[in-house]
Design a protein that fits this description.
- The chain is of the alpha/beta class and about 500 residues long.
- Helix content is about 50%, strand content about 15%.
- The protein contains 21 helices and 14 strands.
- The chain has helices at about 50-55, 60-80, 90-95, 100-110, 120-135, 170-175, 180-190, 195-200, 210-225, 235-250, 265-285, 295-305, 305-310, 315-325, 330-345, 355-365, 375-385, 395-410, 420, 425-445, 480-495; strands at about 15-20, 25-30, 40-45, 85-90, 115, 140-145, 150-155, 160-165, 205-210, 235, 290, 460, 465-470, 500-504.
- The protein has a 6-stranded mixed beta sheet with strand order 8-7-6-9-11-10, sandwiched between helices. A 5-stranded mixed beta sheet has the order 3-2-1-4-5. The chain has a 3-stranded mixed beta sheet with strand order 12-13-14.
- Strand 12 (about 460) and strand 13 form a beta hairpin.
- Helix 14 (about 315-325) packs parallel to helix 16 (about 355-365).
- The radius of gyration is 26 Å and the shape is elongated.
């Protein structure tokens, strides 16, 4: 790492090569941790699965493209000083007659063994990916690739039964001979009354895979959704079906808004992905559809972690890491977590489990914009946090974290610069972002963003009903006009009389 400060210390890069039916991808991660950051990501659309349904073999040209990509990936892993490389192969390789020959060449190119996942294993690791990406998931995880669809029941940290279907985009396109109506019949025949699907009724469907994420991206463009982050994007079943049926009825995606965001190799598969997702929704009757950016690759890494590490909160881990990399004092950021919890409890502000997590993350991230020009710290922090590479957080949670830090810098009155992100938040969430920002604005004027002070500031309720912030006499010099002004502002936000009191 030499003199680089943008990387966390004592982490050894690891990598996963995913040999799929449509594409071959390399992802290099910073290390084997609960919330790994991506150092490098590259995909080559080889189409290994094309033709297997009719010939039983992978196309020679596709194989050559894949081997060339794998040779490059080995060199990239060496360049990035990768210490551990995992290679996973899915439907195309496990089903093709020439799969074993391909594996021999792939292992020679990469210098490590290739793990060929069975359909059941693919479903299992997709489920692990969903477990790693969402807090307490409850529903059916569905991973759509080029060759197959895997469905598996997930509940909390438990993985139930799973099933695999030959309904991947490439496979379905070939089996239906390019006829979407025929594709619908094939999907309906496979999915009707499947026990795994039926068991998901009234629960969440977690949509995994690049084709489905691109459908989510197109839906965002269509409705003008303010946050273009596909992970944890949610759709109501009725809205999803309307969109999917419109797409499959026209069959032409070339004129759709946002189609330029989808790679050319993926566009032809969108309609088939829409067919499968629509049939899943009709048969499952889920409460909602949630899209996941994490799948088999991340599930494999999650499965490699020890149980204690798996149980860590990925959002808090990522927030803490970003604080280490960008804040003036990570210890101070952690102190704010405890102090704002004390503050919320003292003022009787109730929190759900997730609201408490969002407050925790927002405190850890409250100082990441300090190097920016003062006029732009609010907007820079808002952009970094709203679009950060976080998991185990909903879009409303992103809004909470981003807006709390926006208000912490910008003040509590000027809302003109963040209207789109505010659209994501409920009134309750907006209220709590303002509460948190008001407390943070008080704290920073006593601490100068350094540790060792904020835990000494204690809230007490006076006999007359007012709230008092007790400052120890040893820190009385920190009391002044500016902190008193922030206390007055906090008083207005909370609707309670607040006083600063210096104690012995």
């Amino acid at each position: 790492m030499e003199d680089a400060q943008g990387r966390l210390k004592n982490r050894s890069p690891i990598a996963v090569v995913d040999i799929g039916s449509n594409s071959v991808r390399l992802v290099i991660y910073e290390g084997m941790v609960r919330s790994p950051s991506v150092l490098f990501n590259e995909k080559v659309s080889c189409g290994l699965g094309r033709g297997i349904a009719t010939t039983g073999r992978m196309d020679p040209d596709a194989i050559e493209r894949a081997i060339h990509a794998l040779t490059r990936y080995r060199a990239l892993c060496d360049q990035a000083r990768v210490t551990t490389l995992y290679v996973l192969a899915t439907a195309a390789v496990r089903e093709a007659e020439n799969g074993p020959d391909f594996v021999t060449r792939a292992e020679a190119a990469l210098g490590v063994p290739v793990t060929i996942l069975s359909g059941r294993q693919e479903a299992l690791y997709s489920a692990y990916g969903v477990l790693s990406a969402f807090r307490a998931p409850d529903g059916i995880a569905g991973d759509l690739g080029g060759g197959s669809l895997e469905l598996v029941d997930v509940a909390g940290d438990m993985i139930g039964s799973g099933v695999t279907f030959p309904l991947g985009g490439i496979r379905l396109e070939e089996a239906s001979k390019g006829d979407l109506r025929a594709a619908e019949k094939i999907a309906r025949k496979h999915l009707a009354n499947d026990p795994v699907i039926v068991g998901g009724a009234g629960r969440t469907f977690y949509a995994v895979g690049g084709t489905w994420r691109n459908l989510a991206r197109l839906h965002m463009e269509e409705i003008g959704y303010p946050l273009r982050v596909t992970h944890a994007y949610e759709l109501a079943p009725a809205d999803a079906l309307t969109f999917l049926e419109t797409l499959t009825n026209t069959g032409d995606v070339s004129r759709m808004k946002g189609i330029n965001l989808v790679s050319g190799s993926r566009r032809s598969l969108l309609a088939y992905g829409a067919v499968v997702l629509a049939e899943v929704i009709r048969n499952m009757q889920p409460s909602r559809i949630v899209f996941s950016a994490l799948g088999v690759r991340e599930g494999w890494l999650y499965a490699e972690l020890d149980e204690e590490t798996r149980k860590r909160d990925a959002l808090i881990e990522a927030a803490d890491e970003l604080a280490i990399l960008r804040s003036r004092s990570p210890r101070h950021a952690r102190e704010l977590v405890a102090w704002t919890r004390h503050s919320f409890e003292s003022f009787g502000i109730e929190e759900t489990v997730d609201e408490a997590r969002y407050r925790d993350a927002a405190c850890r991230l409250a100082d990441i914009g300090w190097r920016a020009h003062p006029d732009y710290r609010a907007m820079q922090s808002l952009a970094i946090l709203a679009y950060g590479s976080f998991v185990q957080v909903s879009h409303q949670g992103r809004a909470y974290i981003a807006l709390a830090n926006y208000y912490r810098y910008e003040g509590l009155k000027n809302e003109s610069l963040a209207p789109e992100i505010r659209r994501l938040a409920s009134e309750r969430i907006l209220e709590r972002t303002r509460f948190l920002a008001a407390f943070l604005r008080v704290a920073y004027l006593f601490t100068a963003a350094m540790p060792g002070v904020v835990e000494k500031l204690v809230w007490k309720k006076a006999d007359d009903g007012a709230m008092e912030l007790h400052v120890p006499a040893s820190h009385a010099a920190l009391v002044g006009e500016r902190p008193e002004g922030r206390i007055e502002q906090l008083s207005k936000v909370m609707g309670v009389t607040i006083r600063l009191v210096v104690t012995d």
